[in-house]
Amino acid sequence: MQLVLATNNEDKIREIKNLLDDLPVTVLTSDDFLEFPDPEETGTTLMENAVLKAKEIAEFCDMPALADDSGLEVDALGGAPGVFSSRYAGENVTYADNNRKLLSELKGVPKDKRTARFRCVIAICWEDGTVKTAEGTAEGYITEDSVGMKGFGYDPVFFYPPGNKRFSEMTLEEKNLVSHRGKALQNARTLIIERLNKALPK
Ligand code: ITT
Fold this sequence. Notes:
- It is a single chain.
- By secondary structure, the protein is α/β, with parallel strands linked by helices.
- It is built from five helices and seven strands.
- The chain has helices at about 10-20, 45-60, 95-105, 170-180, 180-200, and strands at about 1-5, 25-30, 65-75, 115-125, 130-140, 160, 165.
- The relative contact order is 0.17.
- Inosine 5'-triphosphate binds near residues 41, 98 and 179.
């Protein structure tokens, strides 16, 4: 089976590839195509955006596509940045810009009110246009500073209590075992394996 990753985010690609590497699936990315669209995320939920990205890329590449829409929900901010996580500090900003804005919005908020979760929705659009989805979350809290060089995005400000460290202090394998993306991909693997089994000659 060939599966194209419907994302332009290199950091997601690294994590997703690691999570699929033991399956009999050839994983393709934007690097394998001369042109690759960057779908406009017009949905109001992670689910809507994941589905629209998977559909658009599956149609463009004419093969099954897997999309990830993910974000950080901070309780003290009423669930923000949520669906706007990648553009929290504006269009074309860096991860560091987003983290600075987040820490500044949470200035003075006590630790017990800094609870947050990462959410990930994976959508797979098969060749026939049908779409299946899978979800995962990871609960933690937002720290008061930005520390750690691993991971990406909000990882340097996201403390994960069961691991007693930030996502930015975990190896890729450690993070994938407990993260929102790791859990969503674990569920998505079941969908891929079902599909592979269907394709096998009886
Ligand atoms: P694509 O749409 O091309 O996949 P994107 O980066 O725009 O790439 P999203 O719209 O799903 O993707 O935004 C996700 C943002 O949420 C991402 O840019 C990070 O800021 C944040 N995020 C998602 N997963 C994360 C993770 O595992 N660790 C840290 N931050 C994460």
